[in-house]
């Protein structure tokens, strides 16, 4: 596991964890995250996820990263979608949360999909970014 603290303007703003790291023929992991509502909507989480994915692909040597999100969690789904993660399907009753087994949507990305890096792609896609 790789736990990260998200610092925004000198204060704790969230957390991101890369977990379930599997080596061998899989070379994969999944990412979970949360962000303080006070900084939501400022690009903090997409930037943090992009940095973590680039670290996983370029330094750690992983091939695939997944994000599993409850279908009703629109803000988290938007993070994955903004970054270009591919929605792969539904995992019924995937995790036990708040007293029950909850469905999750699976989003994934492989290293080949972001040869220039996910952070670079995110920066280029943001409104007002200069396009090459």
TrEMBL record:
N-acetyltransferase domain mapped to chain residues: 1-112
Superkingdom, natural source: Bacteria
Biological classification of the source: Bacteria, Bacillati, Actinomycetota, Actinomycetes, Kitasatosporales
Molecular function terms from GO: protein-N-terminal-alanine acetyltransferase activity
Protein's name in the database: Ribosomal-protein-alanine N-acetyltransferase
Organism: Actinacidiphila paucisporea
UniProt xrefs under InterPro entries: Acyl_CoA_acyltransferase, GNAT_dom, N-acetyltransferase
One Pfam family linked to the record: Acetyltransf_3
Listed PANTHER family: [RIBOSOMAL PROTEIN US5]-ALANINE N-ACETYLTRANSFERASE, GNAT FAMILY, PUTATIVE (AFU_ORTHOLOGUE AFUA_3G00765)-RELATED-RELATED
Transferase is among the record's keywords: yes
Family of the protein in this entry: Belongs to the acetyltransferase family. RimJ subfamily.
Keyword GTP-binding on entry: no
Family matches, as SUPFAM superfamilies: Acyl-CoA N-acyltransferases (Nat)
UniProt entry keywords in alphabetical sequence: Acyltransferase, Transferase
An example Gene Ontology CC term for this record: cytoplasm
